[in-house]
Amino acid sequence: MFTLTYAVISKANYEVLQAIYNLQVLNLQDLNYIIGESGGLKTYQVQMNPVSRGSDLRDLPYYNGIVVELYEV
After folding, report:
1. Alpha-carbon distances, residue 44 vs 25, 29, 38, 47 (angstroms)
2. Is 0.70 surpassed by the pTM of this model?
């Protein structure tokens, strides 16, 4: 499961940001769906500290308990 503590998506609409902030725990499918609905996976990357900063979401393996930051690229 991903533990999402903050998300920064500058051009996402309010509803998308609220959906992300309101989820305490996400699995990869949930995260894929939310980001896909907000404009497509190619628009966003996920930053996981300290393991794989800047990795493309589609290339990430399944992690447990790692803080995730979403950011627009």
Report:
1. 19, 15, 9, 10
2. no
